[in-house]
Amino acid sequence: MASTCTSAMLGAPLFKHAGAALLETRAKQVVLSGPSGFLGSRVLKCILDAHLFRKNHGLDPGEVFLLMSRLTSQYGRERMATVRASRVDYYRQHDIHLWQDQLGSLGMEGENAVFVNLAAIAGPVPKQPEAMRAVNYTAPMAAARACENLNFGHWIQSSTQAVKAERAGQVPYSRWKAMADFSLSRLEKLPVSVLVLGLLYCGDQRIVGQRGDTLNLVDFTLLPLTPIMGDGSAPLQPLAVSDAAERLAFLALSCPNNRPIVRSYHEEQRDASSIGRGLKVPEHRSYTLRVYDAVGPETMSILELNRRFCVLNGRTLQPVFVDYRNFERVLNVASLGNLTRQFVSLLRSEQDAERPIVGNPKAFERLLGPEAKLSTLEEAMGHTKGQRKRGFPWFDTIRWVMKNKGVIVPGAAVVVETLGVAAFGPAWNEGATWKGVRFGAAVASTITATLLSLHFGSQLAWMLS
User: 115 burial class (0-12, 13-18, 19+ CB within 10 angstroms)?
Assistant: First the structure.
């Protein structure tokens, strides 16, 4: 990797709109949790680019401390010269003093120390029944209180739009995230920025969410029939992950006193385009707490999102509107890539809500400067139209089924429901007339799926032996 800034790097919005601010601020010590994830890996790249940018201007670049990652082989030793790593166990490290002593032993304290918490678990973890509580609430709050004791200058928290949903308290992920956001808002002196993230997508890879090129939410559009949950009207505000990463990195590297003011709860209540549900900012925290709607500039339905991704792959969407129940039964066993139980619950509650969640991204958009803009879906993906089309990841799907055998029965029910609704219309899911037909089809499909899984499993075992 070259040790000088490239023209492509300098043309990125982070340096085009906020380059001067990055040079004016003091060098920061940034603790980054979740640095290898869908969002975290891009935040790390932005921070390393900013270090290089400052170094080329003769300034101290600062440091970044990674929790739970090995990335030297990816970025090279020269780029990682400003990086140190440490190990923590979010499942078990819940003692404030342990966090305080670990961070302190690394020299992390004072107003130029920043903690960026991107670690999160949105679905069940085998043999870890309390995983979502531990990772999304208990461990981060112990770390935050340790940071306050060490006089950290800034805590940056990744949250989710699901915390505003009517069903937020019924879903473990959104419940623990909401509790963490509330607890952070009640700290006495630690400056906090909470980013209420919407649905993230990658324009370069043409994917939505957390799993890269394996299983993905929009992979259903690659099937002959695409199951759409509910009536497809649930609103989404998709956000380019590059836009989110640049703004997160800027928050971590700049002075928190210069953050844009967020409109108050009562002001949001008077805006017909937004909703006041969510975290309220206490009066005594009005100067030290910011809560940003980290959502994209467009509002579209889940049906429209799938339609657009389908067009990018040169296909025509064939939607089949199915009930939420069977998908929820699958996701109670295991998340399907980035399609999680909490995401389905958010869609379900917002479809039925009188006033669905619509975030206001204006303050988040201008974090980099008054002229900075968030990318629309068309702008982020327009340059990918000539790329190789994606195909449905059959092998990854079979491997996922073999790993989570409990999904076979509810998964077969999803397949049967999709085919049934496509053939017979909405009546397939209505009335007692169809119960016998659906039961017989589900049994036959389950037996077929089980036999096929055993066959593929034995073939795979034979090939590997």
Answer: buried
Cβ proximity of 344 and 331 under 8 Å: yes
- Among residues 72, 94, 96, the alpha carbon closest in space to that of 84 is found at 72
Nearest to 5 by CA among 43, 61, 65: 61
Indicate the SS3 state at residue 101: helix
Distance of CA 273 to the CA centre of its chain: 23
Please choose, from the candidates 91, 87, 187, 195, the residue with its C-alpha nearest in 3D space to the C-alpha of residue 147: 187
436: part of which helix (H) or strand (E)? helix 435-464
- Judged on CB neighbours under 10 Å (0-12, 13-18, 19+), 281 is middle
State how far the Cα of 406 lies from the Cα of 402, in Å rounded to an integer: 9
Alpha helix locations (H) across 106-240? 131-133, 139-149, 172-185
**Residue from 138, 142, 136, 140 nearest 96 by CA:** 142
Please write the tens of the pLDDT for every residue from 447-461: 766 666 666 666 666
Does the global pTM surpass 0.90?
no
Q: Which amino acid is at 49?
A: D
Query: What is the CA 217 to chain-centroid distance, rounded?
Result: 12
Task: List, edge to edge, every strand of the sheet that includes 29-33.
Answer: 83-86, 63-67, 29-33, 113-117, 154-160, 192-197, 289-294
CA distance 388 to 315: 13
3-state secondary structure of 406: helix
Report the distance separating Cα 10 and Cα 383, nearest Å: 19
pLDDT digits (tens, 9 = 90+) for 158-197: 998 878 766 666 778 888 999 999 999 999 899 999 999 9
* H helix or E strand, kind and range, residue 398: helix 394-403
Euclidean distance between CA atoms 273 and 271, whole angstroms: 5
Cβ(453)–Cβ(412) below 8 Å? no
